[in-house]
């Protein structure tokens, strides 16, 4: 058990029959009335971000979670299979627990969040940026670079992102896994 005085960014709590992590919080003491704590909570199971206000001093249940390094092996009808980097233990999880499954390629390192008491996987997070090869995109026409124009490109994982006109088939690009946007050409 913890109170609102123990709130900090990254703390995991049990709230509305789900497990949330505190993304942001602010203690507010108005001139009139009691103090309260405004929070932004992110669900570890669905990824939804909600706003909630707690009365100051209210008790909440904290949850112990562990972040563990895993490597993606393959996908089949049982789900996505990962291997722990140190113990070589394998685990299969469904697609809805992965933050960006369409950007996941074999051998990719990820970080999985586990409920420490029940040993169940809560979420799987890719690194902020991944380097992928462009397998198909329309060729850029010379002289069409005056504006910030983007064109669709298909990546080696099958995902589609918008890239600048100078990117060609076979180029390696860096993609932001949080919003599926082109970041830059990958440096080899």
List strands and helices in order, with pairings.
Blueprint: E1 2-3, E2 12-15, E3 18-28, E4 36-43, E5 49-55, E6 59-62, E7 65-76, E8 79-84, E9 90-93, E10 109-115, E11 121-125, E12 129-137, E13 150-155, E14 160-164, E15 172-176, E16 181-185
Antiparallel strand pairs: 1-6, 2-3, 2-6, 3-4, 4-5, 7-8, 7-10, 8-9, 10-11, 12-13, 12-15, 13-14, 15-16
Question: Could you describe the 3D structure shown?
Answer:
This protein is an all-beta fold and 188 residues long. It folds into three domains: 2-62, SH3 type barrels; 65-125, Nucleic acid-binding proteins (OB fold (Dihydrolipoamide Acetyltransferase, E2P), Beta Barrel), CATH 2.40.50.140; 130-185, Nucleic acid-binding proteins (OB fold (Dihydrolipoamide Acetyltransferase, E2P)). Helix content is 0%, strand content 53%. The strands form three sheets. Strands 1-6-2-3-4-5 form a six-stranded antiparallel β-sheet, with no helix packed on it. The protein has a five-stranded antiparallel β-sheet with strand order 9-8-7-10-11, with no helix packed on it. The model has no long low-confidence stretch (mean pLDDT 88).
